[in-house]
Amino acid sequence: MTAALLGDVVQICVVTSDIRRTIDGYLRMGIGPWRVQTLGPDSTTDTRFRVCQLI
Questions:
Q1: How many domains, the chain?
Q2: Is the pLDDT of residue 55 over 60?
Q3: Residue 46 lies in a domain
Q4: What per-residue confidence (pLDDT) applies to 6?
Q5: Contacting residues for 32 by C-beta, under 8 A, at least 6 apart
Q6: What is the 3-state secondary structure (H, E, C) of the chain?
Q7: Which residues have a Cβ under 8 Å from the Cβ of 39 and sit 6 or more positions away?
Q8: Could you tell me if residue 23 is left (phi over 0), alpha (psi between -120 and 50 degrees) or otherwise beta?
Q9: Which of the four pLDDT bands, split at 50, 70 and 90, describes residue 1?
Q10: Cβ contact 39:47 at 8 Å
Q11: Cβ–Cβ < 8 Å for 31, 23
Q12: Are 34 and 26 in contact (CB under 8 A)?
């Protein structure tokens, strides 16, 4: 991604039922690279979540 498109991106969260298929689709569009992490109470501190209603 270029800086002109999103500015200084720190973090993006993608909610999907098939992360590998989603990443492959983004990569075909030239969006990447991607890093997948599984986060939980043992691996994070001072975490804030923003929740939105999904249609």
A1: 1
A2: yes
A3: no
A4: 61
A5: 23, 26
A6: CCHHHHCCCCCCCCCCCCHHHHHHHHHHCCCCCCCCCCCCCCCCCCCCCCCCCCC
A7: 47
A8: alpha
A9: very low
A10: yes
A11: no
A12: yes
Q: Distance from CA of residue 17 to its chain's centroid?
A: 13
**What tens digit of pLDDT does each residue of 7-36 get?**
666 667 777 889 899 999 999 999 888 888
Residue 42 within a domain = no
Q: Measured between alpha carbons, how far is residue 41 from residues 17, 38, 44, 47, 52 in Å?
A: 22, 11, 6, 9, 21
- pLDDT reported for residue 28: 95
Q: Which domain holds residue 20?
A: 8-34
Is residue 24 situated within a structural domain? yes
Distance CA 40, CA 38 (A): 7
